[in-house]
Amino acid sequence: MATDQPNAGQAAPARPLRRDAQRNRDALLAAARDCFAEHGLEAPLEQVAKRAGVAIGTLYRHFPTRLDLVQAIFAEKLAAWLRAAEKAVTMPDAWEGLCLFLETMCELQASDRGFNDLASMRLPETACLAGAQTRIHQLGVRVVERAHEQGSLRADLTPEDLAFVIWAHSRITEATHGIAPDAWRRHLHLMLDGFRAEHAHPLPVPPLTPDQLYRAMLRLGGNGACSG
Asked: How far apart are CA 223 and CA 228, in angstroms?
């Protein structure tokens, strides 16, 4: 028998927000971008609501958890990093691909403490952005492999070593923000020179294992940055 009900398993389309509700949501997103960029992912949500000109209850109606707000704000930046990673693995010169991958990452982090935090940590597997993080990591691994295959990258550098760029970059941009906002570029290229095969010297300790890196990123995300 025919029915007008939606097919089983299909979600009903989301109802558009009322004009005032959409205005509040847009104001909250704009305020959160500013607050997180200035103070990182631990910025007080009360401050976000105040800057948006709404009550804290309004914030929680739109974004029940801090993670919901984080995902709404940073989906676009993660997508930009993912696009750069996809381009990097197709570039004929693998070294140039590695440089594109890292420079895009650092540029997206620059002047945004919130994205610094996000790039440094691992989101819960249930988070909708976790898939993008995983794909970026997979592509980063391939970027490193291609540079090894072409002989331009030192043989003892592993994909896990790229985390050092992210973590160091976070502190550099925090220290130089508003003073020397492009200083991170100097640091990145100093590190890239150290990555070149012709500059390699024996390293004193082994690289992090994938499990050690994963646990370190979970530790960075375990301080409440995406909770509450």
From this structure: 11
Alpha carbon of 192 to those of 25, 37, 99, 118, 208: distances in Å?
41, 26, 8, 23, 19
Greatest distance between any 2 Cα atoms in the chain: 75
Instruction: Decide if 157 contacts 195 (C-beta within 8 A).
Output: yes
All structural domains of the chain: 18-64 (1.10.10.60), 74-221 (1.10.357)
Angle between helices 66-88 and 19-39 (to 10 degrees): 70
| Residue 172 and residue 187 in contact, taking contact as beta carbons nearer than 8 Å | yes
119 and 209 Cβ atoms separated by less than 8 Å: no
Per-residue pLDDT reduced to its tens digit, 160-184: 999 899 888 888 888 888 888 889 9
Which residue, among 101, 198, 193, 185, has the nearest Cα to 143 in the 3D structure? Answer: 101
* 80-127 residue pLDDT tens: 999 999 999 999 999 999 999 999 999 998 888 899 888 887 777 767
The pair phi, psi for residue 10, each rounded to 5°, is -95, 130
pTM score, whole prediction: 0.79
Question: Tokens at residue 167, please?
Answer: 């973590």
Note the pLDDT of residue 181: 87
